[in-house]
Amino acid sequence: MKKLLIALLISTPLVGGVWADEPADGPAMLGFYHFYAPNPGAVVAAMDKFWTSDCGKEYPADVALAAEVFNGGYDSSHFILNTYPNAAAQEKAVNIMATCADGQQFLTELQAAGVVGTRQLLGFHAAEGGDWTEDSAFAKFDIKVEGQNQGAYVAAWQKMMSAVMKDIDISSYGVGVVVFGNDAFNHWVYVGAKTSTELAAVQQAILTHPGFLAFAKETSTLRENVNTTLVQIVKGYSRN
Q1: Residue 74, pLDDT score
Q2: How far apart are CA 76 and CA 231, in angstroms?
Q3: Which CATH number fits domain 27-123+233-237: 3.40.800.20, 3.40.640.10, 3.90.850.10, 3.30.70.100?
Q4: Rounded to whole angstroms, how far apart are CA atoms 67 and 182?
Q5: No. of H helices and E strands in the chain?
Q6: Which of 67, 90, 152, 239 is the most buried (most CB within 10 A)?
Q7: pLDDT grade, residue 239 (50/70/90)?
């Protein structure tokens, strides 16, 4: 549980040019808190309680609880995704969880339910399309890309998506850069769909598309695939 209490302090990431079109207060930040939960129902109950509390009503992020249905050898079973509109909101969220009685109660209830934190990371989208909040199933790819290759990788990925989307209807997709917590991987890529059945069909179509085959060849020396996870959204909590 200590990992869920760590304050992630924002500094300027070492990825040149990615923030060029962002507003002055910075890009939206994405905080992933991965954990093992022997009783997922208790996690939902604790999150429901916090979200309706006084402190929960002030929490400056959209939040989603996701199950890692298939995730290889990862120790986690779930993650909580916080979408902060900017760095200031992320800092405020950390302060709420660290100082507010409702936040402390939430963490205590997670601990009592046997929740064990496994990994946390903070990053931002380098490119995205569609509205992932309308989807419930995702294929998430964790990837290592060396610093000098990041621009070339993202450009190749965008070219590939432009090609495949001429033939395949994809609900949502994106590539993200991990700024903090990148000891295992420093990028993630996702494809979303309304259902797991729809996602399986989309994935099969992408993997056999000429655009993807060209992308795989072009980026074979730029990236290392670490893991692929089937993600299912359990519940979402909106700031609005």
Answers
A1: 96
A2: 12
A3: 3.30.70.100
A4: 21
A5: 7, 8
A6: 90
A7: confident
